[in-house]
Structure formats: structure tokens, C-alpha cells
Design a protein that fits this description.
Shape of chain B: elongated
Strand order of the largest sheet of chain B: 1-2-3-4
Oligomer: heterodimer
Order of helices and strands of chain A: HEEHEEEEHEEHEEEEEEEHHEH
Strand content of chain B: 5-15%
Largest interface: A-B, 48 and 41 residues
Structural class of chain A: alpha+beta
Radius of gyration of chain A: 20 Å
Number of helices of chain A: 7
Radius of gyration of chain B: 21 Å
Strand content of chain A: 25-35%
Structural class of chain B: alpha+beta
Shape of chain A: globular
Helix content of chain B: 25-40%
Number of strands of chain B: 4
Order of helices and strands of chain B: EEEHHHHE
Largest sheet of chain A: 8 strands, mixed
Mean pLDDT of chain A: 91
Distance between the termini of chain B: 43 Å
Largest sheet of chain B: 4 strands, antiparallel
Mean pLDDT of chain B: 86
Low-confidence stretches of chain A: none
């Protein structure tokens, strides 16, 4: 850490996101402005001082082939990126920061899930990468649901969901393709801002040709399905269990394989309409 | 290891466990193994009685009272087997496969309450619970990859 601390920094900002204080210092004037869209939603500037994690971003010189052309990013003293492409380095910064905030947030439990709002209730679609949750989230938004997130369900201690509205990352050319990012407005959708109680949890996995015939899980099994996608499960099990309890006690958790997302969308709209 | 025996007095593990009640189920998180368990009501109430002071017969009687239904010793042995396999008892209690099959057949006939069940998962690490990139996509750090391995430029 000492070596980095000896460098001269052009800009040094502190932000707070979901209760986590993040310091970001950069070696190039104007670079911190480029970082703002990469911060987790709902960030706020904060006064300097102690931080939970400090990112140090050393943008390399453009052109040439020596070491100074490499962009380096450190999370505290750990190097998380070393690449000649600044864009790639900033990608690593964004991923690391999002995950860190999701894991360390003192007042929220982050579940890897798509979230939409419908008739005043939130629908959670937990799942790992490639389970089809973003596709289902996007289809629900196109059908009129309000967009909350395609990445995290951010749960408070009352079991309500807060928004985490990033652009939707949709894989359009198969699972292995890099996702294309869409603002929700481009899909004809709207963003939700108000925290919502959870009305339904859909645990599904895409399988070509599958028919959507879900079974209802017990609250305990539903809690396990959410826990399997909870970022801070290992770090804060007591908080996590208490929060998940609030969600599953009075909320149906349905599980099944699905083919075309349309089947599930129709099912959900019928279930939660009126 | 103890086999089925009249003097068995099972003891529930308590250290390093976080529990959360959910109506008629119990969630148990093992902080050392990072495993989460869901005990259905039958398994839960039997586990509660594993204080080291109750024989299987006594656990059967006490649980029957709690649940207001017959919980015979066979049911208790099945529960102990489940609990033990999932690390929720201080000592292993084993029921051999043949006996277990016979027990399950007996329980299946006219059981008034649910067969004891313990469902378990390994809690994910933070990185496992986040969005990742498949093999072949660009990366700068292993944390970005589903495999956890970045060649320096590409997820393996």
C-alpha cells in the first residue's frame, strides 16, 4: 500500500453507497467524472475521511508499448486490473465495487435477482448468471411491470425491496455473447423508486421447450432458494436469515423450469392482477 | 459411531449455529461449514429434544405431546439419521441402509405427521452469488469469471 500512497493523485473522492464508504483516487484529472456512471445506484458524495475500501486508479498513457501504457487498478492494496485498455480496467473496477458494496452493506441484504414491481408488490426472480432472470425481467417490464433491477434485490430489515436500477444487460446472441446494456426506457419501461413489499418469488431456470408448471415451496425451502443467491450469506448469516424470514413467511415462492418467458409473464400477470 | 441402541441419548450441536424460526420450519446456519439447513416441523421438534438426557423412547413421547400426534421411535431414528448426516448432532448416529429402508416403509403407512426432513445447501461465497462471465469472454481478474480463472485477458 505504501508504494501507491507515494504517488501523486489528481483527484480523490469519497462516496457512500448503501451504507458503504468508498474512496476513489485517480491519477488523471477528469477521470473521476468518467467513473460516476459505474458507481452502484443511489450513491451519494461524502466528506473525506476513513473509508471501507479505497480504489486507486492509475490510467496508463495512450499509445506506446512500455509499462506506463498499462492501466492499473487497486482495491486497497490488491491489484484487480492491469491492462492496456482503460475500458477493460474500468470494467473490473465496476464489477469489484458492485460486489464489495453488495457484500458489505451494513443495512441491506443483497440477493442476486431480477426485480420488478406490479400492483404495489415486488416480484423477485433470484438466480445465478445464465438462469434467464434478465430475460424474464425484461419481458415483465415490456408487459408493464415497473423495473427495479436485473442484478440485485436489495432487501431491508423489514423485507422490503429497494431499487438497484442499472441498465439491463441482455444477452441477445446466446448465452456466451457479451450482454448489451439497455436503459429501461428503451424497452418502454419505467423505473421504480419506492421500496416495495415482496409479493411473489419465482425460482426458475430456462430450459428450451420446458413447460412452466411450478410447484410452491415451503417458506423454509423458499428461504434456502434465496439464500443460495445471497451475496452476504457467509458474512452476516444472522442478519441474512432474519431478513429472508420477513420475505418468505407470507410470500409464495414458486419453482419450476421454464421455456419461453411469455408463459411465465402471463402466469404472473394473471396471478397478481387486480 | 453408535448404532441403534436403547441407551442412545443424542445431543444437538449448538456451537457455531445460527437459527431462525419460520412458522413450522426451522432454518439453521452452520457458521463453520457455511451450510444452511431447513428442518421441517417433525425434524425440528425432535432436534429440540436432543439434550443428551433423553433416550429415543423419551424423545418419542415428548415430541408426540408437542406435536399432538404420534411420533414413534422409528420416526425418531429416521430424524436422528437425517440430523446426524447433516452435522446437527454432536455424535454420529447411524442407521444402516437396510434398517432405514424398512423404517421409511413403515413410516409411509398411515403416518399422521410429516416424515422428518432436513434440506441443506452450501451457502455461496460472495463471488459465486454475483454476475459472472462465461469462458471466452474478456476479463482482467478471476473474480469476473464464472470459473474464477482469468488467463489475463480471457475467462477460462
Amino acid at each position: 500500500m505504501n508504494k501507491i500512497d507515494r504517488l501523486v493523485w489528481a483527484e480523490d473522492i469519497t462516496v457512500i453507497s448503501y451504507g458503504v464508504r468508498i474512496g476513489i483516487r485517480v491519477n488523471r484529472a477528469g477521470l473521476s467524472e468518467q467513473l460516476l456512471p459505474l458507481l452502484p445506484p443511489d450513491w451519494k458524495p461524502a466528506a473525506g475521511g476513513a473509508v471501507d475500501r479505497r480504489y486507486s486508479i492509475i490510467a496508463g498513457r495512450e499509445g506506446g508499448a512500455n509499462a506506463r501504457c498499462y492501466s492499473l487498478i487497486y482495491a486497497d492494496s490488491k491489484q484487480i486490473a492491469r491492462t492496456s485498455e482503460l475500458v477493460q480496467a474500468l470494467d473490473a473496477f465496476e464489477s469489484d465495487l458492485q460486489l464489495y458494496v453488495a457484500e458489505m452493506s451494513p443495512r441491506r441484504v443483497f440477493v442476486h435477482a431480477g426485480v420488478v414491481g406490479l400492483n404495489g408488490k415486488a416480484i423477485l426472480i433470484p438466480g445465478r448468471s445464465f438462469s434467464g432472470k434478465t430475460t424474464l425481467t425484461a419481458e415483465l417490464v415490456k408487459a408493464g411491470a415497473i423495473y427495479y433491477s436485473d442484478e440485485y434485490a436489495v432487501l431491508d430489515k423489514q423485507g422490503r425491496v429497494h431499487h438497484y436500477a442499472r441498465p439491463l444487460a441482455i444477452r441477445e446472441n446466446g448465452q456466451l455473447a457479451k450482454p448489451t446494456k439497455y436503459q429501461v426506457e428503451a424497452l418502454g419501461g419505467r423505473r421504480g423508486m419506492k421500496p416495495l413489499p415482496v409479493g411473489l418469488v419465482i425460482v426458475s431456470h430456462y430450459q428450451q421447450g420446458a413447460q412452466w408448471r411450478p410447484r410452491r415451496l415451503s417458506p423454509g425451502q423458499g428461504a434456502l432458494a434465496l439464500l443460495a443467491n445471497t451475496v452476504s450469506a457467509r458474512r452476516e448469516p444472522e442478519t441474512m436469515l432474519a431478513t429472508l424470514q420477513k420475505v418468505v413467511l407470507n410470500t409464495p415462492v414458486l419453482k419450476g423450469k421454464r421455456g419461453d418467458a411469455g408463459q411465465v409473464v402471463d402466469f404472473i400477470l394473471n396471478r397478481l392482477s387486480g | 459411531m453408535k448404532n441403534r441402541h436403547e441407551t442412545t441419548k443424542p445431543v444437538a450441536k449448538t456451537e457455531g449455529l445460527v437459527t431462525q424460526e419460520l412458522a413450522d420450519e426451522l432454518l439453521v446456519y452452520d457458521e463453520r461449514k457455511h451450510k444452511a439447513h431447513c428442518l421441517n416441523e417433525t425434524a425440528w421438534k425432535i432436534w429440540e429434544e436432543c439434550t443428551g438426557e433423553q433416550s429415543v423412547a423419551e424423545i418419542s413421547q415428548r415430541t408426540s405431546k408437542k406435536l399432538k400426534a404420534s411420533v414413534d421411535e422409528t420416526m425418531v431414528w429416521v430424524a436422528l439419521d437425517e440430523l446426524s448426516k447433516n452435522g446437527l448432532l454432536q455424535e454420529r448416529v447411524t442407521v444402516d441402509a437396510l434398517s432405514r429402508r424398512a423404517m421409511m416403509r413403515r413410516l409411509g403407512i398411515g403416518a399422521a405427521i410429516a416424515i422428518p426432513v432436513v434440506t441443506s445447501i452450501i451457502a455461496p461465497k460472495a463471488i459465486t452469488a454475483a454476475t459472472c462471465r462465461p469462458s471466452g469472454q474478456s476479463c482482467t481478474t478471476g473474480a469476473q469469471c464464472c470459473s474464477g480463472i482469468c488467463s489475463g485477458t480471457t475467462c477460462l
